[in-house]
Every structure is written in C-alpha cells, then in structure tokens.
C-alpha cells in the first residue's frame, strides 16, 4: 500500500514536471527582438546601417544569420513550408536558394566598404535578401491563415515582392542606408508578431498538457 502510494506520487510528480517543461518557451528565449534607436535588433545585434553610425558587417551578418535561423526553426515547428525558396542558417555566412535551383546559393552576408554601393557581391547579396523576405512572407501568410486568441490578425507591415512596409529590402535599390535599415526594422517587427503568434500556440498546447496531467 505504501509502495503503491509512493509510485502514484512519483507518477504525478513526473506529469507535473512534463507539463512545466512544456511551458518553457525555448524559441522565445533564443530569439529576442527589440530595438535600439533607429535599429531593429535581434539578440542585441543591430540590423542595418545609418550615416554616422558605424555598424560592422560582422554584426549585420550575424543578425541576418539569426533571422534565417528563426524562420527555419518556426517553420519546422509549425509544419509550414516555403513555397519557392529555402534558407541555410550558417551563422554569419548564411545562404538562400531557389528550391528548383538548390546548387545556386546566394549570400545573406555582406562585406566591404561601409559606403552604399561599394558592397562586394552586392547583386548576389540583394538576391539573397529578396529570398529571405520571400520565406518570411510565406511563413507570415501561414500564420495569418491560422488566427490565435490574443494575437493581432496580421503582422504590422505588409510584404509585397521585395519590399516590407513599403521599404525595399535590397540594399542597392533601397534608396539609401536609412530606408534599407527601415526595411530591416519592419521585417523584425513582423517577426516579432510571428513569435507572438507562435507563443500563443505554445501556451495553448501547454495548457492542454497541464490539464491532461492533472
């Protein structure tokens, strides 16, 4: 009798621990979107460049790598699929490619002079950014078609072709560093909405697990 009671208590404890772990939001802990001044930031990494504000390409490239990783992680977790492009999160050297041309990789990292128009491989970098935005658009549309309680019905900035919130994501066609930085900030604000959407789903699932465990 006493042994059976201890076993029941152990089972109940394990169920409670499983429910508690189910409430731990690892993705939200890993990806923290915020802002500093005019910059959007991901895990404290600034994304963009501004006249008079020195942001090393190493920092921008690391931030872009985090964006790629975020999109891939949420897509896998939610079961979403990218329609025409894919991402290879590789830290500061991440890549993007077309699904029908997997060998043709495009850089999600820039380098060279801080001055606009002097970025080595800028055309490939711009194509990579456009592919990144296309993947974000797919995932945001997937989330928007699956509304969740307490979450706005749509992200704050619409994505159309190579622009988000009306600002071009392509460095060479953006109209200046400030507009390019604004595009990147709009993208991060959309991804913040995506994380809120994902968090709402995780919370609902954890509540269901806790009720079952009880």
TrEMBL record:
InterPro entries, alphabetized: Atg6/Beclin, Atg6/Beclin_C_sf, Atg6_BARA
Pfam (any one): APG6
GO CC terms of this entry: phagophore assembly site; phosphatidylinositol 3-kinase complex, class III, type I; phosphatidylinositol 3-kinase complex, class III, type II
Single GO term (MF): phosphatidylinositol 3-kinase binding
Gene Ontology biological process terms from the UniProt entry: autophagosome assembly; cellular response to nitrogen starvation; late endosome to vacuole transport; mitophagy
Transmembrane regions listed in the UniProt entry: none
Domain Atg6 BARA span(s) in chain numbering: 21-198
Family of the protein in this entry: Belongs to the beclin family.
Protein name per UniProt: Atg6 BARA domain-containing protein
Organism: Emiliania huxleyi
């Amino acid at each position: 009798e006493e042994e059976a009671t201890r076993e029941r208590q152990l089972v109940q404890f394990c169920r409670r621990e499983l429910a508690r772990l189910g409430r731990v939001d690892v993705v939200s802990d890993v990806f923290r979107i915020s802002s500093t001044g005019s910059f959007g930031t991901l895990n404290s990494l600034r994304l963009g460049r501004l006249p008079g504000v020195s942001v090393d390409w190493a920092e921008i490239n690391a931030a872009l790598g985090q964006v790629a990783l975020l999109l891939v992680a949420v897509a896998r977790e939610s079961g979403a699929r990218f329609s025409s492009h894919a991402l290879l999160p590789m830290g500061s050297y991440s890549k993007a490619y077309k699904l029908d041309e997997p060998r043709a990789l495009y850089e999600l990292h820039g380098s060279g002079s801080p001055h606009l128009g002097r970025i080595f491989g800028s055309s490939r970098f711009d194509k990579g950014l456009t592919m990144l935005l296309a993947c974000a658009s797919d995932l945001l549309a997937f989330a928007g078609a699956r509304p969740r309680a307490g979450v706005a019905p749509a992200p704050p900035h619409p994505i159309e072709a190579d622009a988000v919130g009306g600002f071009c994501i392509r460095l060479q066609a953006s109209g200046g560093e400030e507009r390019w930085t604004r595009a990147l900030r709009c993208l991060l604000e959309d991804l913040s909405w995506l994380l809120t959407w994902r968090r709402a789903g995780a919370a609902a699932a954890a509540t269901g697990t806790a009720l079952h465990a009880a």
